[in-house]
Design brief:
It is a single chain. Helices cover about 60% and strands about 10% of the residues. It contains 23 helices and ten strands. It has three domains: about 290 residues, Alpha/alpha barrel (Mitochondrial carrier fold); about 260 residues, Phosphoenolpyruvate-binding domains (TIM Barrel); about 60 residues, no CATH class. α4 crosses α8 and α14 runs parallel beside α15. α12 links the parallel β1 and β2. Bound molecules: ligand LIB3CWND. This is HpcH/HpaI aldolase/citrate lyase domain-containing protein. It is a multi-pass membrane protein. Belongs to the mitochondrial carrier (TC 2.A.29) family.
């Protein structure tokens, strides 16, 4: 359900953003189109209409009707693209396909069907828009006593003929929209397929080609339905002077008395407008719809106070996971598995993962081998090449940003192949990578940025969730002699923590390998929590309670956070005073983190009690 809601929100916002871009890119030429359609004899052509309007009404005249046009376009595209998603899923279900794998014709049919719903918002808003755009001509030709505002147009219509008057021209709108959007979406998908390089995805053709495909979609639509649009505009604009004849009679009247040319009056500005307007529409839609970060910033990250490594080849340890009260477990193919056991670990994890994840209340992730090991691709193919696949991926030994980009891109290709044949795409894969070397530490900022950028690509299925400090390997890399206070690692811990928090990521502290020394573990865990780490790696179940208790804010802190967020919700100001202190957004975010952990712990207690 959450996925459907996210999908709805994403497509609704993407369609709204696309509609806004479409209006501002093309409104002047749309105004010229409506004027030429309804008063073809007043102007000699597009340029004359554009020039006269600019001269007599100024730039404002060309943007007349922008408010209803915005309402029309934003509401139309929001409804259109939400309905499109539903129609695509319906056609995918009927044809037993993946909705992202429909043919051009099937996509076109989905577009045509979705226009039935969008027409219900288009008709009233477009009626007001057209009247506003032709307002000066209606006034100068005596069809209106005085110019009106959009509100005045709506009020006079409702007063004269009731609310249903807002749906004058609805039949003509359906007659125009359904075939129109068939050709619109056929033209878009056909052009995108044409522009897709061999071996690439049509979602990856880039901004310019997407814009060109969007413009071509608009061209297909207008060439197919322009005469219908002329009649619709006539009916809607002229109905200000009283009830007009229906679609068919108006069509025959125009054809007989003004000639066929009148049915294409205004086509030129429409064709010119369609490339900037629909190009902007589709670029905005595509790049908003598929920016996973855009959606996942709203999804709450799992709390990972303790992250327990479980060697993937050790069935006894793996089958213990469902009985453990731990926040996060990671089935390991890397450091916890000897070289001669790598294949066994990989295959055992692939075999057991789904069952263990289903039975466990904790998050169950997997750790592959390092990109530099030469084993990572095989790990990804075996572990993520089938659905369902793990929801969390730990990537060790990231030394530079190319490696994290390679991991994200390879993972996306593997996953998209796995879900294509008829499966619903599962949730996002949360990636946590490890910094375990001097090079990795110095290049961490670039690695984080590269990972976020790669996960923001169209149809990416993963997001960067956090960074782990691999202290054992780090010490080996730098030749460090360990001390019990770990003062030699303070710089690395602070740099990893600071960089992770700068990008809103979780930071998971170093492992404490002496798993029988509970006091030392407690001290280091509390130190890490106070530094700002969000969790700690562990290697043994005996470490779970000590670490998770250390990463719980004390009761006063929780009380403070709850009251602060309550005060913030009431005040809704940027900065305000709370308990004598200045409170601004960073403090609010800190309070939210504390409450997030508090809620997680309560949920965990409730699950354990059941
Ligand atoms: C360290 C161990 C090898 C010790 O194992 P064992 O001798 O079996 O311990 P116990 O006899 O005390 O075990 C008691 C029960 O607990 C289960 N157990 C033990 N460890 C785990 C575990 N990790 N996950 C799940 N269950 C575990 C035992 O099976 C016993 O259960 P039962 O039979 O029912 O009584 C062992 O703890 C272990 O292998 N730990 C993981 C080591 C590991 O993964 N290391 C790599 C990760 S650390 C890292 O990567 C560091 C980082 O990269 C860096 O650079 O810093």
């Amino acid at each position: 359900m959450a996925e459907i809601f996210k999908e709805f929100i994403t497509t609704f916002l993407a369609g709204s953003a696309g509609g806004t871009a479409c209006v501002y890119a093309g409104q002047p030429l749309d105004t010229v189109k409506v004027k030429l359609q309804t008063f073809p004899n007043v102007y000699s052509g597009t340029f004359d209409c554009f020039k006269t309007t600019l001269k007599t009404e100024g730039l404002r005249g060309l943007y007349k009707g922008s408010v209803p046009a915005l309402v029309c376009n934003v509401s139309e595209n929001a409804v259109l693209f939400v309905a499109l998603g539903c129609m695509k899923n319906m056609i995918a279900y009927i044809t037993n396909k993946q909705s992202s794998n429909l043919s051009n014709i099937e996509n076109a049919c989905a577009g045509s069907l979705s226009s039935i719903f969008s027409s219900l918002v288009v008709c009233p808003t477009e009626l007001v828009k057209c009247r506003m755009q032709a307002m000066s001509e209606l006034y100068t030709t005596g069809k209106l006593e005085k110019p009106m505002s959009p509100y005045g147009v709506v009020r006079s219509m409702i007063k004269a003929e009731g609310v249903l008057s807002l749906f004058n021209g609805l039949t003509s709108t359906w007659v125009r929209e359904m075939p129109g959007y068939f050709f619109f979406f056929y033209g878009y998908e056909f052009t995108r397929n044409l522009l897709t390089a061999k071996g690439k995805e049509k979602d990856d053709i880039g901004v310019v080609k997407t814009a060109f495909a969007g413009g071509t979609a608009g061209l297909c639509l207008w060439v197919a339905i322009f005469p219908i649009d002329v009649i619709k505009s006539r009916i809607q604009v002229m109905s200000v002077a009283g009830k007009q004849e229906g679609f068919r009679k108006t069509l025959f009247h125009v054809a007989r008395h003004e000639g066929i040319r009148a049915l294409y009056s205004g086509l030129l500005p429409t064709v010119i407008r369609t490339y900037p307007a629909n190009g902007a529409l589709f670029v905005t839609y595509e790049y908003t719809k598929d920016t996973k970060q855009f959606v996942n910033q709203f999804s709450r990250r799992p709390v990972r106070r303790a992250l327990l490594y479980v060697p993937g080849h050790d069935v006894r340890k793996v089958t213990k996971i469902p009985s453990l009260q731990v926040d996060c477990t990671v089935l390991d193919c890397e450091d916890g598995v000897a070289l001669d056991k790598k294949d066994e670990a990989r295959s055992k994890i692939a075999e057991m993962y789904d069952d263990i994840a289903q039975k466990s209340s904790c998050e169950v992730g997997v750790r592959i081998n390092a990109p530099s090991s030469g084993l990572a691709k095989n790990d990804l193919e075996v572990l993520f090449g089938k659905v369902p696949y793990p929801s969390c991926l730990v990537v060790p030994k990231i030394d530079d940003h190319h490696e994290i980009t390679w991991i994200c891109d390879t993972l996306r290709d593997i996953v998209l192949n796995a879900i294509l044949p008829k499966q619903v795409p599962p949730n996002v894969i949360r990636i946590i990578f490890q910094i375990e070397s001097a090079r990795g530490l110095l290049g961490m900022k670039e690695s984080v940025e590269a990972g976020i950028a790669s996960c923001a690509k169209i149809r990416c299925t993963s997001q960067i969730d956090g960074v782990i400090f691999g202290s054992d390997d780090f010490c080996a890399d730098l030749g460090i002699s360990r001390t019990s206070e770990a003062i030699e690692l303070m710089y690395a811990r602070q740099k990893i923590l600071t960089t992770a928090k700068a990008y809103g990521l979780q930071a998971i502290d170093m492992v404490y390998i002496d798993y029988k020394d509970t006091d030392g573990l407690r001290r280091q865990s509390i130190e890490g929590f106070k530094m700002g780490f969000t969790g700690k790696q562990i290697i043994h179940p005996h470490q779970i309670q000590t670490v998770q208790d250390a990463f719980i804010p004390d009761s006063q802190k929780i009380e403070w956070a709850l009251e602060l967020l309550k005060a913030y919700d009431e005040s809704r100001k940027g900065a305000f005073t709370f308990q004598g202190q200045m409170i601004d957004l960073p403090t609010i975010l800190q309070a939210r983190n504390i409450v997030n952990i508090y809620k997680h712990i309560n949920e965990q207690k409730k699950t354990n009690a059941e």
